[in-house]
Amino acid sequence: APLAFVDTYGCQQNEADSERLRGYLSEMGYQFTDQEAQADLILINTCAIREHAEMRALGNVGALVHTKRAKPGQLICVCGCMAQEPHMAQKIKDSYRQVDLVFGPHALWRFPELLYRLVTRRGRIFDIADEPGSIAEGIPLVRQDGVKAWVSIMYGCNNFCSYCIVPYVRGRERSRRADDILREAEGLLQSGVKEIMLLGQNVNSYGAGTGDTFPGLLRRLDALGVERIRFMTSHPKDCTRELLDAMADCEKVAKHLHLPVQSGNDRVLKEMNRRYTREQYLELIRYARQVMPELSLTSDVIVGFPGETYEAFQDTLSLVEEVGFTSLFTFIFSPREGTPAAKMPDPVSREEKGRWFRELTDLQERVASARNQKLLGKRFRVLVEGPGKKAGLLAGRTEGNLVIEFPGGDSLIGEFVEVVVTEALAWILRGQMEI
Ligand code: SAH
Ligand code: SF4
Ligand code: F3S
User: Which of 245, 247, 316, 331 could form a disulfide with 264 if both were Cys (CB 3.0 to 4.6 A apart)?
Assistant: First the structure.
């Protein structure tokens, strides 16, 4: 059988798309390899969220000149969010001649047709037309993991945060029907999956225009009996008390909320077009903790948004200290061509932003270590995900999404076990299993 190599950059949404692409490839008779040099077809699923992600993907695409030279006839395909950017598609057309096929997220479901055209005709194919998105149901997925599964519940984004490329490359929001999602979850349950992660850029606005709502969807999934349900991402402006109540009520829904705040300063939040204030964010957190005292909170922060001053950045530091996140994903602002923020005056140097960035990560490390110290001696229900970093260790995740390592045998992978914390670092816990 012909061999395919699939490489994925970016968020879980992209990972989920790659499962769909692998599904198509497998239907077309391909098997998979992790060696580029052996592959008859190479598919690079790219991300455009920050310059760094694009540079990494382009670097890898560039290196494929050599594999193709050694294996003439090798098909090289580039898809995903970066491919949907007109200037990037042009760049590939002009400077990456080894690439045969380029298509964006809108054309994902046309991949078999595009590939067929590629092998039956001559010439390169670029399919990056901006089109109103559609949802294709019933595509077979080839999932990477038998324990955890991603389930896309909606695509696209309508929010147009001023720094973000996603609405431009993924198009407008559209939601899958709740019945289709439930059917997929039921299948996963039957195949032994223990945890599902519901995916969307803004799951809180799931269902807009279809009559389904996200809290309603959570309640129906909870009743199904999947052991653990997670979701991401939640936008604070659409995170309602109704949703937090549903989380609190649903036994199977993990008490973990990823709620990106981006900044703790009202002026910066406004310039970002986030449409909530610091106080509204903190009020949400207070309510969430009131109904879920054990809730684990994580967030995203952008450092050095155009026009952010050191003083404004202090508001982000104080918010991070006040909330006490379990973990934080921190990014230095990266201008994205075509977004409003890319045109805003941005006087602070990259070096200065780097110093602020380290100040934030140092603070978060202190906050997380102090929080984790309090977990010593506590007992957690842990889903064993795979081997740990060292031989003889297993790695799993608590309900709050903390990684914990402990001694144990591989036969426990995919099972829930009880683990008591014996050592607490900022990023990881160590423990011992209890029977
Ligand atoms: N839909 C999600 C996040 C998607 S992108 C949400 O709205 O929260 C993941 C994170 O990348 C964002 O939360 C943001 O912190 C970061 N990000 C997005 N665009 C960025 C940019 N241009 N520069 C730096 N970080 C960015
Ligand atoms: Fe980007 Fe904002 Fe949409 Fe998230 S909500 S994907 S940050 S535009
Ligand atoms: Fe990247 Fe696209 Fe996800 S830009 S973060 S892969 S939606």
Answer: 316
